[in-house]
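Human: We require from you a protein record containing the residue sequence and its fold in token form, and nothing else.

Assistant:
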Amino acid sequence: MKDTYTYKIGDNLYINLTNRCTNRCAFCVRGKETYEGYALWLKGAEPTVSQIEEEIGDPKKYREIVFCGYGEPTERLEDMLELCAYVHARGGKTRLNTNGHGSLLAGRNIAPELSGMLDGVNVSLNAPTEAEYNQLCRPQVSGAFQGMLQFARDLKNAGINAWFSVVDCIGEEKVEKCRALAGEIGLSLKVRPMIG
């Protein structure tokens, strides 16, 4: 079976750049063979920029081009930015769904590089405290929770349209604590249903 580099859900086209991720979230769909009927685990090499561009074609056919697959898109920051430029040059819109570890991965604040390249950034918060985050998301990098919060602050400071999200499986009380934390940083919170 051919590896799936892009997949359609609703009016959006999603870009599956990599399997690599800095979290091992308890609720993640990475353990499933398929998602929405698509086999997203890349068994071969990661797709090239030109392969993705070919599959996108005319980005105006979609409401958004969303960087969100079985891995963390900022693991391939330069390629993602190149694809953002491709989409914007052709009148399309882009969104990043991220665990917020991009700056930790790059070793620098990447928010200024994302400015003007992304029309929206969804940062997965998922827990109101570092201890709960570590238990639920099982990060593979040190300082993951604080790094994610700082990334969100940097996005806001760079004037990028950003928000936090949580999965409803964490429970109403924790959702409200996450909402308060998001408010302290100055971002809104979206609650999404657990998949599967």
Strands lie at 6-9, 12-15, 65-67, 94-98, 120-124, 162-167, 189-192.
